């Protein structure tokens, strides 16, 4: 697969150096997925692709959008510097869990 590039901060960036970060309506980061795997096995170039990967159920995706959840594509350097899902969102209710980044698998439940 040819290398996919995206423009982040007006700089061409390889998609495999990026991650999609999901923010709940409260503003807390709650999940993350690698935008592409180095081996070419998966690419999530659009927000819709990332949403379907993080939440397979269309009904749940639609609910997340209605509630104000959003996705942001960012470089891995920015993810590690600013987000790093080390702290749980204090606003999550019930058995909902955050997802943490495992580069080998994409997004996994914490």
- The end-to-end span amounts to 31 Å
The biggest beta sheet, please?
A: 3 strands, antiparallel
Characterize the overall form: globular
In terms of DSSP E residues, the strand content is 25-35%
Q: State the low-pLDDT regions, or none.
A: 100-105
Strand tally is 7
- Number of helical elements: 3
**What is the chain-wise order of helices and strands?**
EEEEHHEHEE
Question: Which structural class should the secondary elements be placed in?
Answer: alpha+beta
Mean pLDDT comes to: 82
Radius of gyration: 14 Å
The helix fraction, in percent, is 10-25%
**Strand ordering within the main sheet:** 4-3-5
What does this structure look like?
By secondary structure, the protein is α+β, with helices and mostly antiparallel strands. The protein is built from three helices and seven strands; from the N terminus they run ββββααβαββ. It has helices at 47-54, 58-66, 76-83, and strands at 5-8, 11-14, 18-23, 29-34, 70-75, 99-102, 106-109. A hairpin with a 2-residue loop joins strand 1 and strand 2. It starts with a strand and ends with a strand.
């Amino acid at each position: 697969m040819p290398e996919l590039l995206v423009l982040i901060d007006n700089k061409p960036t390889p998609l495999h150096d990026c991650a999609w970060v999901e923010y709940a309506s409260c503003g807390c980061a709650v999940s993350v997925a690698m935008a592409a795997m180095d081996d070419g096995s998966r690419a999530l170039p659009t927000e819709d692709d990332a949403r379907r990967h993080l939440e397979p159920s269309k009904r749940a995706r639609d609910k997340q959008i209605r509630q104000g959840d959003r996705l942001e594509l960012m470089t891995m350097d920015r993810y590690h510097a600013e987000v790093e899902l080390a702290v749980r969102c204090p606003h999550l209710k019930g058995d909902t869990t955050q997802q943490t980044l495992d580069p080998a698998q994409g997004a996994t439940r914490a």
